Amino acid sequence: MPQLNPSPWLYIMLTSWFAFSMILQPKILTFTTTNPPSTKTSTTTTPSPWNWPWT
């Protein structure tokens, strides 16, 4: 079967992964800024009971 021949598709897949990981990914990562780690402690709020009008 011709679709099982990996010779053209393997080269295309490897080339596209190389282009993404070596060329496109560093360019994309320069645009996104990561959040610095926060030293703030998370505060938990205690919920107040809801006063239902019919009870």
Automatic annotation (TrEMBL):
Which portions of the sequence form the region Disordered? 35-55
> What molecular function terms (GO) are annotated for this protein?
proton transmembrane transporter activity
> What's the protein name?
ATP synthase complex subunit 8
- Transmembrane stretches in the record are 6-24
Is Protein biosynthesis set as a keyword in this record? no
Keywords of the record = ATP synthesis, CF(0), Hydrogen ion transport, Ion transport, Membrane, Mitochondrion, Transmembrane, Transmembrane helix, Transport
Listed InterPro entries: ATP8_metazoa (IPR001421), ATPase_protein_8 (IPR050635)
Q: Any keyword Plastid?
A: no
State its location(s). Answer: Mitochondrion membrane
Q: Which family does it belong to?
A: Belongs to the ATPase protein 8 family.
What is one term from the GO cellular component aspect held by the record? proton-transporting ATP synthase complex
Task: Show the Pfam families listed in the entry.
Answer: ATP-synt_8 (PF00895)
- Membrane topology, as annotated: Single-pass membrane protein
Name a single GO biological process. Answer: proton motive force-driven ATP synthesis
